[in-house]
Amino acid sequence: MKKNIWKNNGIQSLLASLACVVLGMLLGYIVLLFINPDGAGEAVATIIKNFLTYSRPETQAKYFGNTLVKTAPLLMCALAILFAYKVGLFNIGVAGQYCAGIAVSLYAALAWHWGWLPCMLLAMLGGAVLGTISGLLKSYCNVNEVISGIMINWITLYLTNMLLTKVKEDTSPYTYVLQHNNPSAVLPSLGLGRFFNNNQYVGLAIPLAVLIAIVVWVVLEKTRFGYELRATGNNKNAAKYCGMAEKRNIILTLAISGMLAAMGASMLYLTGYEQWQCSTSSVPGMGFNGIAAAFLGGLNPIGTILASFFIQHITAGGAYVDKSMYCAQISDLISAIIIYLCGFVLFMKYAMNSAIARKEEKALLKAKEKEPEPLPDPAETKEGGDE
């Protein structure tokens, strides 16, 4: 039987993701029409263009680099969500683990004057500790990882504010400028900045995040360890019956997930691109945007690379919407609509599979109806005549 290309998982993920993007843009356009129809089309076009709204190629290159800088941590948060989801866990605590990465990496860099590598490793350890806490509660106390993750998010946020208050500027709520206080903690540029109009923030984080995505794909799809994790996610009781340590796998998965999220935080803040505001009262949105990037990428590490860039692209593009026609929050609203619809990728894939199955069933029934009736066996006919 000829293989149906529409049943290919990669093609289905691509079509479902594109459908979510187009539908999100359409809904955003409708919202803008209700607010102010005169500039609706231009506003949507501006969000899509992002850095291309600038006319000079040098400026475009610079702001393209800025988009890439923020894509790296988003990709790491998406990988953290994806890694846990493959094991049947929904790590909503990624936002808190991201905060932990900010806290320990910046404190080590600004208070102890460590280099970038020890700061990043310490951030990964901090995220892994938080993930382990959720894993222990899940495995031994049967506490849902979503509940524990949400609680830990807010605890970590306020602990981050308290810790980084010790390394903040006297006249503002922001932490010290990393480049001035400890240049050794800034991630190496690897000479990549010259391709983006000498953008000093573009460097190691971007290729490192892509490399981590490839490693995650290899671990999940090509190793025994990855197979055990996926088997535990599909049916932990069956995995336990087969001799797999399901509790260990749950704890280890959430620890690795937390490590990835915290590593993403260090990739952003150790570039010096942002300073932490010690009066922050809400959990960073990067952890939640990672959920959308993971699902928009079809829960595939390679697809997540493109999905993370797209989500960061439209998020940054929203800042260029004409504020004289729309309020400052309208760009966030449009981005949120698109990000929200990204969660329907799996539903759309399910709908496509259902439609394909119904179509194949109808084709099979028609084929059976057209089949000629079998001719009688000559031997049986002759035997019946002799009787």
Structure description:
By secondary structure, this protein is mostly helical. It is globular and about 100 Å long. The chain starts with 8 loop residues before the first helix and ends with a helix. The relative contact order is 0.19.
Secondary-structure element series? HHHHHHHHHHHHHHHH
User: How large is the share of residues in beta strands?
Assistant: under 5%
Which runs of at least 5 residues are low in confidence (pLDDT < 50)?
Answer: none
Could you give the distance between the termini?
A: 45 Å
* Strand count: 0
What is the gyration radius calculated from CA atoms? 26 Å
Secondary structure class reads: mainly alpha
Helix content: 55-70%
Overall spatial form: globular
| Total DSSP helices | 16
Largest sheet: none
Report mean pLDDT, rounded to a whole number: 86
Q: How would you summarize this macromolecular structure in one to three sentences?
A:
This protein has 387 residues and is mainly α.
Explain the layout of strands and helices.
Blueprint lengths: L8 H27 L4 H10 L7 H29 L8 H17 L5 H26 L3 H20 L13 H4 L23 H18 L1 H11 L1 H6 L4 H24 L16 H11 L4 H17 L12 H12 L3 H26 L7 H9 L1
